[in-house]
Amino acid sequence: MEVSLIDILNAREARAELQQQLLKDFGCPVISFTMNIAGPIKNTPLIERGFQFGLQALQSRLPSESIKKIHIDLASTGCTALLAVDMDAFSLKQICVHLEDASPIGRLFDMDVLDKSGDKLERKHQRGCLVCGAPGRVCAAGRLHSVSQLQGITNQILEEHFAKEDRQHIAALAVQSLIDEVNTTPKPGLVDRRNNGSHQDMTLDHFLASAEALRPYFKECVKIGQETANLSPTHTFPSLRIAGIEAEKNMYQATGGVNTHKGIIYTMGILCGSIGRLWHAVCPIASTDSLLRECAKIVSESAVSDLTNATGTTAGELCYLQYGVGGIRQEVASGLPSVSEIALPCYEKALADGASKNDAGAITLIHLIAKVADTNLYHRGGKDGAEWASKAASALLPSPTLSAISDLDDAFIGKNLSPGGCADLLAVTYFLHSLQ
How many Å from the N-terminal Cα to the C-terminal Cα in the chain? Predict the structure, then answer.
């Protein structure tokens, strides 16, 4: 909402009175943090997000024991934080100036420091204009730029900052989901903390190295989604596929040639692209249902084309030709129903019933093995092996114990079976749960 000049002046006077009260009560310097926002609209959800980011960044640079009092006001006249901090005023000013100058969003931060006597410490160098970079006071005094120009630049700074910030955070959650999946123990036939499952060529360390190597890929997929959000969903997929091919190379380099995450590169890449397409600076993560529908739209054409033109050159294509099982392509093209209808409800129920994250994941995996046609099982054991795995997992439902899962692990290893596709769906489950 718009505020009047009188409202702004009254808010400024009230802030000055509170500053003096904090100086009197605590006898230490005070930081006054506001946002540098032009025009009559001083607070929006996007501006408030920028303010909260700045406040968190400021607090992270101050020893917690030095902060004696924090007063926060998210009024329509502008966001304000007053901090009484028991530190040297000059050191505080250096911290504030660094935050103001370190990145574009810092240009929107106005962090004043009052010493013990209430005197305001000045910057050594004048700040530049938001629009043209010239000394800001000159532009402001001459009203050289319109309010709409300043507002446009402000929104651009905030949106670009959070687009990048959110890419990094989403990629971190994706990497963590892969780490959580491989650490979930026990898992029938899969690499975990108990053993290497039915795999002679890979270890827990291979998976951890691969997960970290894929961090830039996940971040790039979100970016691709953001940059193609105005195009049809199918236009996003070709760029994701190119990024995925490069990610496979990085995976093999990190693992010394071991295929740890080829399936999840496809699934998680499309999911990250979906997040990017639906991203908004104020609400960066869309609902799970919306994300999964977007995944289906992204691969709708490519999945049909890949399966229709399958030649059997890959294990997935061969499985489709021999058994009619579409695997992860068909799963994603359908909106990942195995995750939304089986894994997520199961995982969240287990957590609600008091299970740990590890145990809830292990239970969820058994439900997936029982109900999902996993091409990895078909590849290793044929139709008979896949059906045996499903029946063996179903026998443990509805409440498999860790002891029973461990016994099933031994049985899977004996038959050289590994439900890698279900493991990927478990990783996606971890990821979606952490996002929401």
Answer: 29
Sole residue written with tokens 């963590």: 176
Give residue 131's pLDDT band: very low, low, confident or very high (50, 70, 90). confident
- pLDDT at position 241 is 97
| CA nearest to 282, candidates 172, 162, 167 | 162
Structural contact between residues 111 and 85, judged by C-beta atoms closer than 8 angstroms: no
Alpha-carbon span 328 to 293, nearest angstrom: 15
Q: Long-range contact list for 253-260, CB < 8 A, 24+ apart?
A: 253/213, 254/209, 254/210, 254/212, 254/213, 255/202, 255/206, 255/209, 255/210, 255/213, 256/206, 258/201, 258/202, 258/206, 258/210, 260/202, 260/206, 260/207, 260/210
State residue 41's pLDDT score.
Answer: 96
Phi, psi of 326 (to 5 degrees): -80, -10
How many CB atoms neighbour CB 321 within 10 A?
13
| Ordered DSSP codes for 243-281 | HHHHHHHHHHHHHTS--SSHHHHHHHHHHHHHHHHT--S
> Distance between CA 304 and CA 302 in Å, rounded?
6
Nearest to 191 by CA among 177, 210, 206, 176: 206
Q: What is the pLDDT of residue 130?
A: 84
Decide if pLDDT at 363 tops 80: yes
Who contacts 6 (Cβ-Cβ below 8 Å, separation ≥6)? none
Question: Closest by alpha carbon to 270, among 208, 325, 334?
Answer: 334
The structure tokens listed for 276 are: 């990017």
Other beta carbons less than 10 A from residue 178's beta carbon: 26
Q: Within a 10 A sphere around the Cβ of 167, how many other Cβ atoms?
A: 23
pLDDT at 84: 98
pLDDT, residue 72, reads 98
Report the candidate in 431, 422, 420 with the shortest Cα–Cα distance to residue 268. Answer: 431
The pLDDT score that the predictor gives to residue 1 is 82
Predicted confidence (pLDDT) per residue in 164-186, tens digit: 999 999 999 999 999 999 999 99
User: Which residues sit opposite 81 in a β-bridge?
Assistant: 33, 72
Nearest-Å Rg of the Cα atoms of the chain is 27
d(CA 323, CA 233): 30
For residue 404, report the phi and psi dihedrals to the nearest 5 degrees.
-65, -35
pTM here?
0.93
The whole-angstrom separation of Cα 197 and Cα 260 is 13
Integer Cα distance of 331 and 412 in angstroms: 24
